[in-house]
Design a protein that fits this description.
This protein has 194 residues and is of the alpha+beta class. It is built from six helices and ten strands; from the N terminus they run ααββββββαβββαβαα. The protein has a four-stranded antiparallel beta sheet with strand order 1-8-3-6. It has a four-stranded antiparallel beta sheet with strand order 2-7-4-5, with no helix packed on it. The protein has a two-stranded antiparallel ribbon with strand order 9-10. The longest helix has 26 residues.
Length: 194
């Protein structure tokens, strides 16, 4: 994996913002006719965080964990498995399933914010990383958050349909919760459920 220049990284992150916006529109459309605009407005001028991860090869991988099981607090996470070494696993019905890297493809994780805003229609995915015994692994994760003025709560149309399942918090309150939470399971959502 070669070094990224600042300009290249800027272009990459802008392109990911566009992909995220497109995905949010599709999620909104799937949730109902009034939802796409409501959902995309919350993420307009939103925050984006990027994390580049390096996981070394580990002969005793049963004694080490790459990243503990957790969900992402963001709305959406776009993950590029840069060198196509397997290490990501998702929890499906209590069983850890490996996610096989596909060359030049992104993995899209629904985060806690989309679970809350969709009133549970979309679920954030619990995942973890494990180390490979022979190969090092590189990933680039881009986390997409709402704008700073956003209110994090279930969209009204979905509450009217199914009743409210989550608390509504200011962006500051949500990020205060995020800062205090452990990187463990669905810890943020446990505090958000009504």
């Amino acid at each position: 994996m070669g070094l990224l220049s600042g300009a290249t990284l800027d272009k990459y992150l802008l392109a990911l913002q566009e992909v995220s916006s497109c995905l949010l529109k599709l999620i909104g459309k799937n949730l109902g006719s009034d939802i796409p605009k409501q959902l995309t407005e919350v993420f307009e001028n939103g925050r984006q965080a990027v994390r580049m991860n390096y996981y070394p090869a580990c002969v005793n991988r049963n004694n080490a964990m790459g990243i503990t099981p957790h969900t992402d607090a963001a709305g959406l996470t776009l993950l590029l498995q840069a060198n196509e070494v397997q290490g990501l696993e998702i929890n499906k019905n209590g069983k850890w399933i490996p996610v096989i890297p596909i060359p030049a493809a992104f993995i899209v994780n629904i985060g806690d914010i989309i679970e809350v805003m969709s009133n549970g229609e979309y679920k954030s995915i619990e995942h973890r990383t494990v180390l490979d015994q022979e190969n090092e692994r590189f990933t680039i994760a881009a986390f997409h958050f709402p704008n700073v003025k956003a209110v994090i709560g279930s969209l009204q149309h979905l509450v009217e349909k199914n009743g409210e399942l989550y608390k509504t918090l200011s962006n500051d309150a949500f990020f205060g919760l995020f800062q205090k939470a452990k990187l463990e399971g669905k810890s943020i959502l446990y505090h958000m459920k009504l």
